[in-house]
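Input (structure):
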């Protein structure tokens, strides 16, 4: 009978490990202290509540007075995450929502860090590449259904890498399972298919290259796994409430001129925004690293750079995906470049006493980082010295107090409000106050958006447009609608009945002639 020998666990905490721990705890702490912003979250909650209550996915708009009864297919694209978000909310309120969201996003970058380490065999490089991805992604870390796509995509990249190294098929089942969640949670699921498409393209290219340069016969077996993965995963995409019509929905969304022009995050990146500036710098940095790397980029890396770089140059919504997909590519080429540079540098020798001091310092720093991550949990947020904009669990730009005042002091007629307030109004005031517009951008036709902008800017004819919709109450954002606020300040037809740091409510006076 053979004896079973266990290898001793001989892990020593080093500074290189602290880099990784610092990046992940930084991401985790940032997410824990980042409040829930109002633009999208609340209407998703209402839809989740309706699905759980009625056991049906709504198909038409019931929240606005400008487009009542209009078809809205997006409900079927988000239904799984909508129900998950509402279920979590009922268990622990917004605090638990923030915590689960933090775990989800941090899991994505943890998988990415592990992948970068497997590629580079260097913890510092893995930490730097993960930080690169996080810097390009933090603008998209708001609580909304898209969050679940990030760990799935990172897992796809990891499984593809593992197959390259080990050639084992047992992990391939993760692709259809992941896409099943993805396609029922958010419309970005084609990016998962794109990753598989890049994998099979790389395999075809390598097989063709071996055949031409080394006269190796065409290896069809090499293509079986990626082809099967792409085929099965593509068919799994049909397992959603819209079936094959999900493609029509995506085409409609991607070609919607209103979305492209109305939503800043759909606009091309520029140096005028922090996210755009970080991407453009990161794009130039990636180009430089690929250019100077001793290793030539393979076809998959080049296509990844072109596909996700092109997507990000077209729309800022693609920036986070450029960071996620390029991190493993940069890990490989950074490792090659730094290895070459290290040969020219003198090697430092560390004495035993210095190593002992370093271990003590590293352990102390690791404990501080873990303690910081613990203290950052949203349940302790009220005790932290955070800036005012990050202090609450629910963002201060959410009109909670103003909406409560409106509920306690009902006003007649329809309500005109800031678009950014629409999602929370759907959550808090239905059916008493149907919204004018909200962040379901594609629901409303271009004419309504033009009227919304005209009223918000107090352009000529704004009063006639309010009369057209029988609006007798204005619920305005101080930040987003200063022109309309100024126009009504001394206007005889409007009386200010509520004001705080973010919102102003006015009611229409009855003028007796």
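Output (sequence):
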């Amino acid at each position: 009978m053979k004896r079973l020998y266990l290898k001793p666990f001989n892990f020593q905490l080093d500074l290189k490990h602290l880099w990784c721990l610092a990046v992940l705890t930084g991401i985790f702490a940032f997410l824990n202290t980042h409040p829930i912003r109002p633009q999208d979250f609340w209407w998703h909650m209402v839809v989740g509540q309706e699905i759980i209550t009625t056991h049906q996915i709504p198909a038409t708009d019931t929240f606005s007075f400008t487009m009542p009864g209009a078809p809205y297919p997006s409900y079927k694209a988000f239904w799984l995450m909508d129900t998950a978000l509402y279920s979590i909310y009922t268990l622990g309120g917004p605090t638990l929502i923030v915590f689960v969201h933090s775990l989800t996003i941090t899991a994505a970058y943890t998988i990415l860090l592990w992948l970068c380490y497997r590629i580079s065999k260097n913890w510092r490089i893995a930490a730097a590449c993960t930080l690169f991805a996080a810097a390009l992604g933090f603008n998209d870390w708001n609580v909304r259904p898209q969050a679940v796509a990030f760990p799935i995509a990172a897992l796809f990249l990891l499984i593809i890498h593992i197959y390259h190294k080990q050639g084992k098929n047992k992990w391939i089942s993760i692709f259809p399972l992941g896409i099943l969640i993805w396609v029922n949670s958010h419309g970005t699921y084609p990016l998962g298919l794109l990753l598989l498409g890049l994998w099979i393209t790389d395999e075809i290219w390598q097989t063709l290259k071996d055949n031409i340069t080394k006269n190796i016969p065409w290896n069809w077996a090499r293509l079986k796994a990626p082809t099967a993965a792409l085929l099965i995963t593509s068919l799994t995409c049909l397992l959603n409430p819209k079936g094959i019509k999900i493609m029509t929905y995506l085409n409609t969304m991607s070609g919607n001129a209103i979305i492209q022009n109305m939503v800043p995050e759909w606009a091309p990146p520029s140096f005028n925004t922090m996210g755009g500036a970080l991407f453009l710098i990161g794009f130039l940095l990636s180009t430089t690293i690929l250019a100077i790397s001793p290793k030539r980029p393979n076809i998959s890396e080049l296509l990844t750079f072109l596909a996700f770089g092109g997507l990000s140059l077209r729309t800022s919504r693609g920036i986070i995906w450029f960071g996620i997909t390029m991190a493993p590519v940069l890990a490989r080429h950074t490792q090659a470049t730094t290895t070459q540079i290290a040969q020219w540098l003198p090697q430092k020798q560390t004495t035993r006493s210095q190593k002992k001091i370093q271990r003590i310092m590293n352990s102390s720093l690791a404990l501080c980082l873990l303690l910081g991550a613990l203290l950052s949990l949203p349940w302790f947020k009220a005790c932290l010295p955070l800036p005012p904009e990050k202090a609450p669990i629910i963002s201060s730009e959410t009109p909670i107090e103003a909406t409560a005042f409106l509920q306690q002091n009902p006003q007649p007629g329809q309500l005109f409000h800031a678009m950014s307030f629409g999602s929370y109004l759907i959550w808090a005031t239905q059916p008493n106050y149907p919204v004018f517009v909200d962040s379901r951008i594609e629901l409303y036709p271009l004419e309504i958006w033009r009227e919304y902008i005209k009223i918000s800017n107090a352009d000529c004819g704004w009063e006639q447009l309010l009369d057209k919709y029988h609006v007798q109450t204005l619920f305005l954002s101080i930040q987003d609608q200063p022109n309309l606020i100024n126009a009504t300040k001394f206007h005889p037809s409007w009386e200010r009945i509520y004001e705080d740091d973010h919102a102003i409510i006015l009611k229409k006076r009855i003028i007796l002639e």
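Notes: Residues 15-341 form one domain. The CA atoms of residues 87 and 288 lie 46 Å apart.
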